[in-house]
Amino acid sequence: MSINLDTIVSLAKRRGFVYQSSEIYGGLNGCWDYGSMGVELLNNIKNEWWKSMTYREDIEGIDASILMHPKVWEASGHVENFTDPMVDCKECKARFRADQIEESMCGNPAYKGRKASKCQEEGKFTEPRQFNLMFKTFLGSVEDSTSIVYLRPETAQGIFVNYLNIMNSSRQKLPFGIAQIGKAFRNEINTKNFLYRTREFEQMEMQYFVKPNEDMKWFESWEEERMKWFIELGLKKEKLRIVPHPMDKLAHYAKAAVDIEYEFPFGWGEIEGIHNRTDFDLSQHQKYSGKSLEYFDDETKEKFIPYIIETSAGASRSFMTFLIDGYYEEIVRGEKRSVLKFHPKLAPMKAAVFPLVNRDGMQDIAWNITEDLRKSFRIFYDDKGAVGRRYRRQDEIGTPFCVTVDSQTLQDQTATIRDRDSMEQIRISMDSIKKYLAEKLF
Ligand code: GAP
Predict the structure, then answer these.
(1) Domain 349-441, what architecture?
(2) With respect to CATH, is domain 5-67+135-323 assigned 3.30.930.10?
(3) 188 C-alpha to center of ligand 1: Å?
(4) How distant, in Å, are the alpha carbons of 333, 340, 355, 356 from that of 386?
(5) Ligand 1 centre from 314 Cα, in Å?
(6) CA distance 291 to 71
(7) pLDDT tens digit sequence for 265-315
(8) pTM of the entire structure?
(9) Extents of the domains making up the chain
């Protein structure tokens, strides 16, 4: 089934997953808000990542501040290198990435549907200029060059500068990792494809500190582990691939790198990068801070700067990937059924509870079941409209199970449970609903 991105964007808005930021003012380009279903899905993704990373011996968590000392960004190379070449159209003032003109459209409404390359041929563009993608702001009340700070463009640097703190306080030894989830900001020139490239987004990054001669072993192991994570949470295997970066295209800090890519409706795109960053980051921070970041190996009595293997996923981009991958349409009894087939661990609502009809005390029973289940799960209660319509509403937000109280419930204290994917119903005793859901959901 081929999926149109517009279908996903419209479903996301209609069912409370994602809205354009500041929509009533016409929107803010490259920024999005997560609605009531969206924030649950996003939290579930982040939670699964956090559990997979930190519920183990060798990885510690951290939550570093977004604003950091300006020297961090000099040491990391972002002040100098985190740039895109940009050109401006002298006529309509639209701005393009010089290396993406072929894929861009002219910004002038008068030339609707025209390719930007045509405007370039006609000499309408300025010469390319380097444009730094970091957002600048000022710390404190004085707005001058001494008070400039940046909104972090990646979460990784908060980990590097805390490597000693974490190692000393947690008494970890190599190899060990530090994991972080947090917002990052990039003043992207071209924001496009919904949540794929935005100006404010969230990252889930883990830096794994290793002995220099063990770097490639850990690089390969993390590549495998991260691919497995996406597949275990339900992404279709055939829509995923690993793409190594060619040696001549590696980032300035990397010795080896791969991208995990997903086949989106607009083509293949990166959802996570895995890098062997060598000792570049810690060496740079040692140099710029003047503080020794060397590791002392008790066994060999050697001192060295650890190598770092980085796994860097976008939480927002993963969100969009799970939304697209889960979307499914079919015709059932002459009517379209749209379903989000999320893995139960990711589904925003774990179950919905309905009284079949609003009489004979069915509402009270359904409400009591809801209250009881809510002690453990996120549950939706619905007593409005035909039950078939209620099922469809839950399918559309990806609720794995619907519990219905009917006239038989009044006689034998059983209820039906309908499975989202097979649409099959079974009947179980009301007492065992919680246990049934717990087994199926986690
Ligand atoms: N610390 C390494 C780093 O930041 P990156 O490839 O620039 O590497 C890692 O970013 C991940 O962050 C990407 O795979 C993507 O999922 C996400 N990401 C990067 N820029 C983004 C943007 N403008 N909008 C949404 N997600 C983005």
Answers:
(1) 3-Layer(aba) Sandwich (3.40)
(2) yes
(3) 11
(4) 16, 21, 10, 8
(5) 6
(6) 13
(7) 999 999 999 999 999 999 999 999 999 999 999 999 999 999 999 999 999
(8) 0.94
(9) 5-67+135-323, 83-132, 349-441
